Amino acid sequence: MKKYSLIFGSIFLVASVVAEQPTFTMGPATQTHAGLINCGGKSRPSAVGEIQSEDGRVWVVPAENNYERAPKAEDLFNECGGKVLKSLADLNLSDVAVMDAGGEEEFIVYLFPDNYFELYVNGILVAVDPVVFTPFNSTVVRFKADRPLTIAIKMVDWEETLGLGMESNRGTKFHAGDGGLVAHFQDAKGRSVAITDD
Length: 198
What we know:
0% helix; 198 residues; mainly beta
């Protein structure tokens, strides 16, 4: 069996390669967008804001994102107006669009994010999470690419107190974030290529 290398990475903050001095912000951010998605009582506000650091830089909080511009991952379970499959047996993969990441081999990835993700393959943005904050959801993405794969997943643990990095949880509105991700990458024959527990 021929072996292929795979690079799997998570991008938590996008920063330049050059070492920079730390920068600090103080206080809440100014809201610039009231919410990227609204599910009524089922969702939390997915606001976006800006805050200026002591060095004069303006930061987007909770993070710069491509939610409004990029293709959305296909729903497996989405109570915010999407599909709610009872099991994977209900999934017809041929109904899932194949995204082009610059190659010929087909791959499938199943993702369960807390809260938001952007999936990049070989430097190309392939899909974003269709639900920014809550309710929790799960998705599937099909894409074509050539090996070796460079997989990067930008994760955002959304915040309700913009600029402070906190969310409402366990009876307080100042609960520290607790984001995470489960992802399973397979080839077109269903063989595991990468999984987040490796």
